Fold these 3 entries.
Entry 1:
Amino acid sequence: MEISRHWRLQQQRYGLVGEVCPHCSEKIFPPRDVCPHCSGEAKTPYTFSGKGEVYSYTTVYDAPEGYEGTTPYTVAIIKLDEGPLVTAQLTDVDNGKAEIGMPVEMVTRKLREDGDRGMLVYGYKFRPQLAVSV
Amino acid sequence: MRDIYINGLGTLPVGEHWETSLRELAVQAIQAALKDAPGLKPEALFVGNMLAGQLSHQEHLGALIADFAGMRGIEAVTVEAAGAAGGAAVRQAVLAVASGWVETALVVGVEKMTDKVGAGTTAATASAGDSEWESVQGVTPTALAALMMRRYMHDYQVALKDFAGFSVNAHANAKTNPKAMFHNTLTADSFVKAGMVAEPVNMFDTAPEADGAAALLISAQPAAVRVAASAMATDTLAVHDRPDLLNLRAAHLATHKAYQQAGVGAEQMNVFELHDGFTVFAALSLEAAGFAERGAGWKLAQGAIGLSGQIPVSTFGGLKARGNPGGATGVYQIAEVALQLRGEGGANQVMGAQWGMAQCLGGAGATAVTHILSKN
């Protein structure tokens, strides 16, 4: 069931909570406690805005176990406004309709399921930014 | 450090070996390598493998294979580094012999891909990526390559058809390699029309996962092929953590360390067995190894990579058409360079080959292992 494996990441998966480095001020996601830019200790939490743009994308037709139900789906690398890149599925956009540079925002959605009685894993996906939310 | 040589090699045909188990594949390759180097008695065994735990419910391959190969008692261990496992195992054997603690080391790369099929295998291969921040989003190795390829095409204004040359060359070379999985001709036209796996990566862009095993005997006893360099480097496991998605940094570091060890450069290489699991990796590998400027690796596929070209790659079919048996692949790559330097390439021989390089990649390039071999 792997409950604890997903439970301990809830802040990152639901709230996009990363870190900011107290030494070089770079924003870090996912959190790793050691700054990848200056190698200093970085444990200060930082909540990202969830806004960013598509850096690259692909539509997956050959899905791994646990994801077959939603095939095909679009996966992207998102460049967050604060700097870091994250990998996430796109939602509310037709497959093949994504574009590099497209503004997107984070939403919470179901990521995977383990059969009829298994655990559902929720987390972030990104959708095109809605005009009203700007 | 003393000089290190490749004394024996053995490779099995890559394909779907439904009738042969993981351990049988390994033992057969080992027997072929031992036959190729009569009189040598290995003291240590390094097994390159990526997925046996997930696909065959079997870990602890060192002791298992030592036992079934008739070497009960010797030192043996598994080396895992995703698709670079085979190359990493060869490096461990080279280090062992160089240290003087081991006189003769045996390496076997083995992968049994076909005991599971479909989504289960895809999930297993996805574990080469970052499970918490990539795989959980349904990202597969193919998807990671696709994300890199899309950006490559965007930044350098390259079209899908411009990558065709890598796969066409691989199929052309595999045709005369009896150990290769595919023996059919691929045209650039069929390449661009192939069905998508993860856009823009299509069926003819990606290498087939298959069963296989390859073995090498490595020692300090002079032989026809010398190991002139052995180097390894890493990059971030997650592709999104890289400051530059189009720079295979680990490959760059490992290759340049290897050039320094061997005292040669890209211009001396007569053969380059690169990791063409996806065509974009071939283009990026050529750039990282100094054969092309940044953004220009794809141009070499337009006529420079054939057996008589400026830099022959995938000379026995590469991952694309010889087939990609995961953790065994790196040992195949190194064995193929050795065959070229021995002059035993048959119809696939690169004439007058003196220097050859094999570069193994794990995941989307998070591990790179580079070996340079020279004709003794």
Note: The radius of gyration of chain B is 19 Å.
Entry 2:
Amino acid sequence: MSENKRKYTAEDLGVEKVYLESGIEVDPIYTSQSVDDSSANDEIPGEYPFTRGIHSTMYRKRPFTIRQYAGFASPKETNERFLFLINNGQSGLNVAFDLPTQCGLDSDDPRAFGEVGRVGMTVDTLEDFEIAFKNIDLDKITVSLTVNGSAIVAIAMYIALAEKAGYDIGNLRGTAQNDILKEFIGRGTWIFPVDKSVKLVVDTIEYCAKHLPKYSPVSVCGYHIRESGANPIQEMAYAFCIAKAYTDGALSRGIDIDDFASRLSFNFDIYGNLFEQIAKFRGGRRLWAKIIKEEYGAKNDKSCWLRMIAGGGGGGLTKEQPENNIVRSAYYALISALSGTQTMALCSYDEAYTIPTEHSAEISLRTMQIMIHEMGICDTVDPLGGSYYVESLTDRFEKEIKEEMKTVDNWEGIINAVATGKIQESVSKQAYEREMGIQTGNVEKVGVNIFTREEEKKDVQFHPYNQEAANKQIEKLRKIKDSRNNDNVAKCLASIKTDAENDRNLMPSIIAAVKEYSTIGEIVQVLKDVYGEFEEPIFF
Amino acid sequence: MKILLSKPGLDGHDVGVKVLAHGLKDAGFDVVYTGLRKSIETIVNIATENKVDAIGLSILSGTHLILAKRMKTVLDENNMDIPWFVGGNIPLVDVKKLEEIGTSKAFATGTKVEEVVAYFKEM
């Protein structure tokens, strides 16, 4: 640094200091001197460490994938919707599951009362998958399963479905969310103790690495961690610690880093300060590449890619003056595209209080399409590359995320930090501080605490609950239990128990069990008997 | 005053209930939180064991009417007369229905922490 370096700090210029949500101070002016030492000066998109993007041509060759979420109650309705989407040219399907399925409970379980089919598709047995995917060519589609606690059973069902129908499972493409560690921090559909939960994830990674090389068994979610109160640095740091925990598990089974790292993908949030989010993704992408190459010794460049869906931003949207959310979402989409995302999804502007209408869902879709077709977002790769501010902040984020990961190391690693509630404690405290900030006006939200106006109170709305459909599902389950070979089911469940007790990979025995129409509740119960259940540390 | 905050049903969204727990604690209340996915019976047992003065149910999945009815039944079976509250994602149109079922107060979606604190302070 030259001694006569000009300074442009808030103090020098006599303006108030500004801090990002992550606590980083922002200077009023950045110059070439801000990036003197930055590695960014020599970086090219598509080349390690991929700060500027994982592909050399990015959207110039193909824009990001648009994948909007949707959930349907019954396997039959899901099938109808899938066939409609496929006939309209969509090849990526997304399955949301109801809470009993996500928690590993059958539809006839008393704890499932009132919840069957409420927030997604119900699954009791393989038959439900068979109905949902009837007349669908599994070789031509990719299916995304949004499930975590009971993910190993759902993945086993998808594999069993394909095998029974005569497909070569080696060609199956698709993803499962299957990120149980984030469930302990936010979202909450955990079942088993933390270490056993991670073991199940690693079982799916090991099985897929050996038998389904094109399948992505885990999507690590910083998204839910951020929505639970984490700041952008923590969002990335905790997600990377989680991804490393799964990676360590896979390596301990003797799998080569290059045989599975390229199948790991990430799911991140985009609300908040525009430049902070962009720096978060660029700095995070560089750091992740370095971790995989330098710490794990990956030889394949693809293993180092931070492949991501960056979208949603629900935490930033408001019930007040909801049309403003259309504008917010357009900025979020811009953040996501300027950050080099692979896939994008946006919340509907009315999602904060009601069931999105076809109209509001269309606006989300058009928001992304306008950006692609009218704004020139695809013309050049990483258009902010070289910006003094963005590069300086990117460097800072790489450093800060790394530091935050050390904090987790000091908590004896992510598994321990989650099991003891250390992360939950800090994240929930921040959620409270943020909420108080909004309620007192320290955190400014347009239409909420500034520029408010009298407006009609909008009521929240839910899909009406369909008890009749739930009854039909329960009746269907009863019929399957009567017609299946119950001796075989008992034998299969006993093998799962033996495998669990002997710490073997459970995928083969669970696949065998679901083929005999064992229920998700029966399988999860066997595992609960062996592993016990997670006892939640209470922190607030 | 000691308040039990709880998460009945299968819904795992606990950001709101923890924010409220912080808020009540900061306002000087004694707060006990059950953690996720507790049955109504378990919640009532925890309330008895901890000798709380009020029970709050946080529900975001839309099952509030079903769970409130269950709450009423279990409290009646145990001959318990204790104020209980429902919050979370609660439509305005259901506030009256919940109060008819027997909840002392239902806090609709969007209720501020300070409003809940003020309510308990007046109790």
Note: The interface with chain A takes residues 9-15, 18-19, 21-23, 25, 31, 33-37, 39, 61-63, 66-67, 89-93, 108-110, 112-114 of chain B (CB under 8 Å).
Entry 3:
Amino acid sequence: MIEINELTKRYEDGVLALDHVTYKVEQGEIFCLLGANGAGKTTTINILLDFIPPTSGHAFINGHDCNKFPLEAKKYVSYVSENVQLYGMFMARQNLAFFAELAGKTGLKKKDYDDVMRTVGLPEKALRMRLKNFSKGMRQKLGIAIALLKDPPAILMDEPTSGLDPTSAHEFLAQLQRLREQGKAILMTTHDIFRAKLIADRVGIMKQGRLVAIRKKQEFKHADLEEIYMHEMQMAESA
Amino acid sequence: MLRTIIAREFLNNILNLRFMIGLVLCIIVTVACIMILAHDYRQEMKDYNARLNLQDEILDNYAKANRHRLIGMIRPQKPPERFRLLIIGIPGNEDLGFFDYNPLPILFPPLDFLFIVTIIMSLLAILFSHDAIAGERQSGTLRLVISNSISRTKILFGKFIGGTISLVIPFILALLVGVLYVSINPAIQWDSSAWVELALLTAASITFITLFYLLGLMVSTFSKSSAISILNCLFLWVLLILVIPNVCPYISAQLCRIPSIKQTKRRDLEIEIHSLKVAREYMKESIKKFKLKYGTLFSEFESMEFGGVGFLIDAKPKHRKAARQRADADPEFKAMMDAFREEGKKAQKELIRIREESDMLWYDLKIKAAVQTKLAKNLACISPFANFVYVARDLTGTGLRSLEYLEQTKDEYERQLRSYVDKKIDDAREKDPAFEEESLLDVSDRPRFVFKEEALKDKLGEVLPYWGILVLFNVVFFAAAFAGFMRYDVR
């Protein structure tokens, strides 16, 4: 569903953000990208969403080249950012309706909104609240609700649990689980090794633009993922 | 999809405090401005009617057969411009007296429709659009919008259309309130052409407002944050609204130098003094010669108070009569008087010849000033402000062109009046040989000056190029905004 093929990105200032990165995220799979700041995790997402062009290589969503046919590729993907920012003066329902319409979902009924709010764990009355009165956790949940309303086969998440309190983070992971069960391909960048271990089917470890390792769930299920991560980092350093 | 973006942009703007501020400001300022100007209009209309009545009374009772004086008495009176309710026209000489009592209008810019559109609305437009892109980038919503399958072109169009609608609403609402006031006020009567002109003025104003909205949008697509965007917008606003239109006349004056009115008046006075000196010297010499030649006869003539420049022309009728009688009785006196009259005419000719230099001076100044004005006007076209002012003023008959048009109609009327006065005096003389300049003349059937507005077609012909430039500015700013947004880094 999500395919990264020899993807390289060198910024105008010469920084090599991605260095021939290749991997795939299949349907019903959660792939977590781990790495320090500047490792190239967000750059990958930026290329997948056509925010920036790649220097070389390709990124595909549902078989559509994200750089050549971005509008086609973006039909099949939703995006949840680290800090979901919506229109503060709008009520939650107005935000949901706007982004749903952008995703081509028109004619949604009250029941649809109520359902999605319940699914993400937000009270129905929050639909009538202005976004400026939402906490960060509530905004993150509404971000997920927007992604759910679009109902795409792939979801990109950029540090989605960052800044969430433990309860919200726990609810968030439960939500991810449900999405996986629905067959969504989820690419999630995170610093949170603990939660990556809990939820990921595979993890990719990035360092200075390179994908230094990919580990399957079986490989880190009973091991300390942090140790694996540190080990891979040291290996990459010495290489 | 486009409709969704338009609706969101519109809703986002009208939920914002700046929309309410804009709406309230527009309505208060427009209504206050129209009410004040309507009061002034009624006052000016009253003054105009009073001037007409006074002139009629004077002419009906005191018109005498002196051609120059009579033409001078019949002054074409222009009614106040019908758009005086919205736009303060360029003051004529008769209006300057007003400032003797209240000098403040000179110190402060007038609050009228032009001020509302060019200052208030243009600033509001920038306030609405400066953060349309940069603000959304900063808040993070732009990433979420662009992560959907929607082209940047649609986003930009949506923002432009939605933003413009939310900006134009306060303006139109305020204008409608003003128009309602005009339409229910019995003292103000507009014909259909005035309403068409108002509709065109509104359309031109919207072109100007969208231009500044697009300017803000363009700057926004080249800025990373709202703060930088608003600073850049304000810089451009000051440049386009205040600096360029004010600097262009100075540049034009430097490129096309002409003497000032004061200098020309001084030179004119010098020429007049010189001409008088020359004529006086000439007459002094003539008097000397005549004294030598005619002796006591000339002294007798002198005692009849003739002589000097303006010989016989300035003489009083009773003196002229006495001289004529004396000349009829004495051929020698007549020969001397005729010879002296010839000398007087020569002096007069010399005086006129020298004074022609003065006429040339003013004519030359007028031509050069016209060139300088045209140059300044064309240079100022790089500012949308100047183009809008030309369109608004020429369309409503409150600008420079209306003054030129007024001069033309006045000239036509004066030509008509001169032939009427000549015919009237000739007829009166034919009927009564004793008819003199001091005799009363009935001019009740004189042609009346009726000021007619210039035809709309002619006005449109004049304003369309400037309107076209405003549209061109819109296109350029949109193209620049488009180019900027296509390359805009949403991260």
Note: The two ends of chain B are 23 Å apart (CA to CA).
